[in-house]
Amino acid sequence: MTQTIFVLNGPNLNMLGKREPGIYGSKTLKDVEADCKVEGRELGFDIDFRQSNHEGTLVDWLHEADEKAAGVAINAAAYTHTSLALHDAIRAISIPVVELHMSNVHAREEYRHKSIIAPACKGVICGFGAHSYILALHALKNITA
Questions:
Q1: Which of 15, 17, 32, 44 sits at a 20 to 30 Å CA gap from 77?
Q2: Is 24 annotated as catalytic?
Q3: pLDDT single digits (tens) 94-140
Q4: How far apart are CA 33 and CA 122, in angstroms?
Q5: Local structure of 89: helix, strand or coil
């Protein structure tokens, strides 16, 4: 039976390819989704890929993942640095969650250096562009195997 991995994306990630390509690259979110689905198949995962600009929707999806998925890769974007609700939702579920970022948040503005959700996650991957998503899937494969 194939395991499902939720790949959740937070605010403004729908603008990939247009938004600050010098930081985030030229791939669109649809391109990233396609890459994740290909890699997911290689790893034996079905990928449920979603994006929302709304914090509560991401919380709802984390709760849903607990019932339907083996793990979650989340790029919470700006909510990484502000959302106690996402932190609490991750702590409330029993499946592993890997935080990811395309940019190296530690090489950027100081307010991006602190992640509120990281302490609730199994690990954090950042700084590898769109490949951060692939690395997160591999991490989930290692911890769900």
A1: 44
A2: yes
A3: 999 999 999 887 766 676 678 999 999 999 999 999 999 999 999 99
A4: 22
A5: helix
> Which member of 24, 79, 87, 133 is catalytic?
24
Pairwise CA distance, residues 73 & 90, whole Å = 11
Q: pTM of the entire structure?
A: 0.94
pLDDT of 54-109, one tens digit each? 999 999 999 999 999 999 999 999 999 999 999 999 999 999 999 999 988 776 66
- DSSP H helical ranges for the chain: 21-24, 29-43, 55-68, 84-92, 131-144
Kindly state the DSSP code that residue 129 receives in the 8-state scheme. Answer: T
* 107 closest CA partner among 126, 91, 124: 126
- Residue 71 host element (H or E): strand 71-75
| Cα–Cα distance, 42 to 39 (Å, whole number) | 5
Whether 79 is catalytic: no
